[in-house]
Amino acid sequence: MIEFIKGYVDNVTPEYIVIDHRGMGYQIHTPNPFSYKKNNSEEIIVYTYQHVREDLLALYGFPSREEKALFMKLLNVTGIGPKGALAILASGNPSQVIEAIENENDTFLVKFPGVGKKTARQIILDLKGKLGEVAALYSPDLFTHEDIEQKYTTNQALNEAVEALKVLGYAEREIKKVLPALQEESLTTDLYIKKALQKLLK
């Protein structure tokens, strides 16, 4: 098992980032790839989970051990795969997710892509009362990535955000509903994604 990878961000796509570790490029799926920026001069650490299936070997990465721990908890739920767990974490607010589980708020949970009423109830059944240790590890700024340089123009950033939302499983009709509000602002791709997710989860 690869616990973490330390290296430079070589590439960022709507679905994954590529970390250059000593000349080897690791493709790592993350909840919000655009929270990272391409940088060949600053090393970062990505905490990884290796997912193995008969036809697939994939790495999933997170900025902290705490976020990785919550991802692994979600994977233990029947009906939740890596893609579904990433979509839940991409909301950027783990406290809301944990609160929804503890309060048996399945109405909130079904707002995530691929989570129906049955899966929401399963999440609550499997995880209620079992997230205390994970929740205690979170800091308020866990999902906040400050000091992100706006490398792309507004339109490019917004287009990339739309692509990232599609990768997470949101339908085009859902994305179109929140686009007007997003187009009023000039943000980085990462912030567009976070703002869109806030609106999609209301």
Automatic annotation (TrEMBL):
One of its GO terms (biological process) is DNA repair. GO terms for cellular component: cytoplasm; Holliday junction helicase complex; Holliday junction resolvase complex. Its main location: cytoplasm. Residues 153-202 are annotated as: Domain III. Residues 72-91, 107-126 form the Helix-hairpin-helix DNA-binding motif class domain. Belongs to the RuvA family. The RuvA-RuvB-RuvC complex processes Holliday junction (HJ) DNA during genetic recombination and DNA repair, while the RuvA-RuvB complex plays an important role in the rescue of blocked DNA replication forks via replication fork reversal (RFR). RuvA specifically binds to HJ cruciform DNA, conferring on it an open structure. The RuvB hexamer acts as an ATP-dependent pump, pulling dsDNA into and through the RuvAB complex. HJ branch migration allows RuvC to scan DNA until it finds its consensus sequence, where it cleaves and resolves the cruciform DNA. Homotetramer. Forms an RuvA(8)-RuvB(12)-Holliday junction (HJ) complex. HJ DNA is sandwiched between 2 RuvA tetramers; dsDNA enters through RuvA and exits via RuvB. An RuvB hexamer assembles on each DNA strand where it exits the tetramer. Each RuvB hexamer is contacted by two RuvA subunits (via domain III) on 2 adjacent RuvB subunits; this complex drives branch migration. In the full resolvosome a probable DNA-RuvA(4)-RuvB(12)-RuvC(2) complex forms which resolves the HJ. Has three domains with a flexible linker between the domains II and III and assumes an 'L' shape. Domain III is highly mobile and contacts RuvB. This is Holliday junction branch migration complex subunit RuvA. It comes from Metabacillus litoralis. The gene is ruvA.
